[in-house]
Amino acid sequence: MVVLFNFQFSRWTFYKHLTPRKSITLCQYKSTSNFSHFVTVTFRQKIQINLYVDTLLQWNKRMNLTAVKEVNEVMERHVEDSLAILPPLSDSHRSHCSTSIDKLKLVDIGTRAGLPGVILAIARPDWDINLLESMNKLCVFVVGVIGSSNIQMLRGRAQSLGENLCFREKFDIPVARAVAETRILAEYCLMLVRVGGLFIAAKGHDPEDEVMKAESALKKMGASLLQVCSVPQL
Hints:
transferase; alpha/beta; 10 helices; rRNA processing; 7 strands; Rossmann fold
């Protein structure tokens, strides 16, 4: 479920910085046709995502980055879930925002292992993606994955970032996936949104009650609910 509120990644980085294991190839997935969003990206983007997933699983053995252990489950629960943000994001931006969608500045709040930020950066290399994470071990993993690219790694917490004038109201779109309740996210994340921008909260099934409880916090921050988008295949 994707909830929307109204208020340069290098194409070659993964070729340069990551070496895939011989045992992991695109054809090892049970069926890429089951991944409706993954099949829409280019072949090069599929390779980049494949290498990211491979590296995530390798590092996960040592750092416990995610509870998901199998490649197909990573594809379904992390990659597809991240890519599912793009259609409602693009539609809402085109219909409600005056700026071009080609050069968006996005911040991924509580990115943990780079989700959804790294996947969005692969799918949209023209966007400026900032990954915010407070846990040092997760920052170490993400920096190791992205190398020197125009994905920016920010170490810290959303509430602290919003108090910094260098970041307040500087982003077109903050995105938060499985981080906190919407009312809490509103207080932390809406400080980062430029006037006229969007805030996206990726939630589980049936988030309507949670969103209703956040209405006062949204109004206090000068925002309003734009839409709640179901992603039925996830």
